[in-house]
Amino acid sequence: MLSNLATRDVETLIHPYTNLDAHRANGPLVLERGQGVHVYDTDGRPYIEGMAGLWCTALGYSNAELVEAAAAQMGRLPFSHLFSGRSHDPAIELAEVLKELMPIPTSKVFFTSSGSEANDTQVKLAWYYNNALGRRAKKKIIGRSRGYHGVTVATASLTGLQANHADWDLPLPGFLHTACPHHYRFAEAGESEEAFSARLADELEQMILREDPDTVAAFIAEPVMGAGGAIVPPRGYFQAIQTVLARYDVRFIADEVICGFGRLGTWFGSEALGMAPQTLSFAKAVTSGYVPLGGITVDEPLYAAMVDQSAKLGTFGHGTTYSGHPVACAVALKAIEIYRRDRIVEGAAEKAPHFQARLARLAEHDIVGEARGIGLIGGLEIVADKRTKAQYDPKAGVAARCVAFAQAEGLIVRFLTGDRVAVCPPLIIAPDEIDALFDRLTRALDRTR
Ligand code: PLP
């Protein structure tokens, strides 16, 4: 029997990434408030928010300083835009702070309101850049199977997940996908991580050559794949990939939407994994998820091309009403101040060994084929047979059942397609809360088997 709010939800709302048929019977989990790493439903039941919302609430819930920063900016200048050269101090200050933090050479920062918009901007700029340089055929973009980059027409095309393509008439022409770097699933018997990385880099090179390097503009990758299954790349992967990209003058875009701002125990995932992209996209934890904000970095060659194009075309014809929204920028500035002052990123690195040790223990469970992670992110591969790595029939929805049992145990985690379960708690999680999280997840796995 659905509650009053749940019934009204079913009657009125369309939920993203939800089985809309099942939702009519099951109804929603209606949350009312949050505090620290906990969220509370309308019956007052607490849950450990083991997904930091959607990989974003790094500073947990009800952080008074973030609330105050938003309220103060709301009271002062609740809206302004950056069109036609207009500006405001939160956007200027945030761009300065971000430039300082970026792990790669950054000339300027461009703001969006989401990760999808950030990556959509990356696609458009990869095209725009090559047009500016007179390389009009160099337009194809390579993503990866199981990569996730958003839901706009272009970013769903970058994404390498079936649910984003099937019956959406995507990917668009000119978007290609190279292999997923998941050693457990795709390495050959006895193949080392390094050998697997070298093979994938070779496959990428063959793809670029087959397509013709003069038609390939960019390659995009998350440091750790999030929605694709919390997949940590094998040793040497990005080093091998980068060598290929440099050989064919293919721009490397790092999608730091999940890994940015401390998730891997470094400010950006690129630093943890030795990545040297030309540009990166960020969103989510830049405001700890409290208000929507995303963006991209622009390197000097790209910026120079953008200036030239503006001179030629009369304007830089891109941007949305909410690019650099002052409230979002004010909250991001406060969030970054807190990350720095409270050593949140260093704290994530210090807690990571405990988190990863508890995660690794789950690999002993008889339905867990692999428990993998880095920093404060982890993923489980649910299998029917540990020896053969055979999966359950997808229709059985085993990972979804595990997540439902976790919810009954007072823990929110997320199931991902291919029977994977992701864990990605707020970075402020305390060691005893890490233990409570994994105790509950273990009980959920016991009930699932
Ligand atoms: N890129 C990555 C790596 C993501 O995980 C996501 C969202 O989960 C996106 C891009 C899209 O971001 P948004 O949902 O804010 O559009």
From TrEMBL:
Gene designation: spuC
Family: Belongs to the class-III pyridoxal-phosphate-dependent aminotransferase family.
GO molecular function, one term: adenosylmethionine-8-amino-7-oxononanoate transaminase activity
BP terms from Gene Ontology: biotin biosynthetic process; gamma-aminobutyric acid metabolic process
Keyword Transferase applies: yes
Protein name (Swiss-Prot/TrEMBL): Putrescine--pyruvate aminotransferase
Keywords tagged on the record: Aminotransferase, Pyridoxal phosphate, Transferase
Organism: Methylobacterium hispanicum
Keyword DNA damage: no
InterPro entries, per database record: Aminotrans_3 (IPR005814), PyrdxlP-dep_Trfase (IPR015424), PyrdxlP-dep_Trfase_major (IPR015421), PyrdxlP-dep_Trfase_small (IPR015422)
